[in-house]
Design a protein that fits this description.
Blueprint lengths: L23 E4 L2 E4 L8 E6 L6 H12 L1 H6 L2 E7 L3 H15 L7 E3 L4 H5 L14 E6 L5 E7 L7 H17 L13 E2 L6 H8 L5 E4 L2 E4 L2
Parallel strand pairs: 3-4, 4-5
Antiparallel strand pairs: 1-2, 3-6, 6-7, 8-10, 9-10
Bound molecules: benzoic acid.
Benzoic acid binds next to helix 1.
Length: about 220
């Protein structure tokens, strides 16, 4: 069989619903072990291709500028790239000096690519040496709940990252699902009925916004 793409035998790809693979790593805030990091909190773990590059600088500044919003959502930030700790420190300091923005969250120095490979961040047909722009949403039970992968040449959308995090948390809290373009304050989707009794009670409920029996929204 002819395979056009480079095989990724050493590059696992975690999936939604998996337990987040554990690892130990050196970061700009010291050594961490994922299973002991940010107990009882959500974690947004994200990779960037390289320090001292323009798109990455805008993205990391975006995370830094929104740190308080992530904290308000009980969430810790955790960055990563295949760079040394010295490169990370130099870049953090350079951005602080030039723009005043301080990357005040741990950034993993993944020079041996251990974590990048464990999380499928190294996608060799995009780059054999730089991580793609991945975002892993990890819940307080250390389960992976949402994954984003972006290529090297397109920066992510910080509003969407925050929106998706809030949607996951709201879904968990209220046992509901989130419709297209949902944002905080919008109606949410009630799970479809699973019995005739539930169907009849839904049809009789005038508080719901009903499109049809299986698509009903409510305020929370
Ligand atoms: C950037 O962040 O600008 C970038 C990094 C790696 C490859 C291409 C762009």
């Amino acid at each position: 069989m002819h395979l056009e793409n480079t095989q990724q035998q050493t590059n696992t790809m975690p999936r939604i619903g998996d337990n987040a693979p554990d690892f130990e790593a050196l970061t700009t805030k010291g050594q961490i072990k994922l299973s002991e990091f940010a107990q009882d909190k959500w974690i947004v773990m994200f990779s960037h291709p390289a320090d001292f590059t323009p798109v990455c600088t805008t993205e990391m500044s975006g995370f830094a500028n929104k740190k308080a919003e992530f904290e308000a959502l009980n969430t810790e930030l955790l960055g990563l790239s295949i760079d040394s700790i010295h490169a990370h420190l130099g870049w953090v300091q350079n951005v602080r000096e030039t723009t005043g923005v301080y990357f005040d969250f741990p950034i993993i120095a993944d020079l041996d690519m251990k974590v990048s490979k464990l999380y499928g961040m190294l996608q060799p047909n995009e780059s054999e040496t730089a991580a793609v722009r991945a975002v892993f949403f990890i819940d307080p039970k250390k389960k992976i709940r949402l994954i984003m992968y972006y290529p090297l040449n397109v920066g992510r959308n910080m509003d969407e990252i925050l929106r998706a995090l809030e949607a996951l948390q709201t879904s968990d809290k209220h046992g509901v699902a989130m419709p297209l373009n949902w944002k905080k304050g919008d109606k949410v989707i009630c799970p479809p009925p699973k019995s005739l009794e539930a169907l009849n009670s839904r049809l009789a409920d005038d508080t719901l916004e009903k499109t049809t029996w299986y698509l009903a929204k409510k305020d929370i």
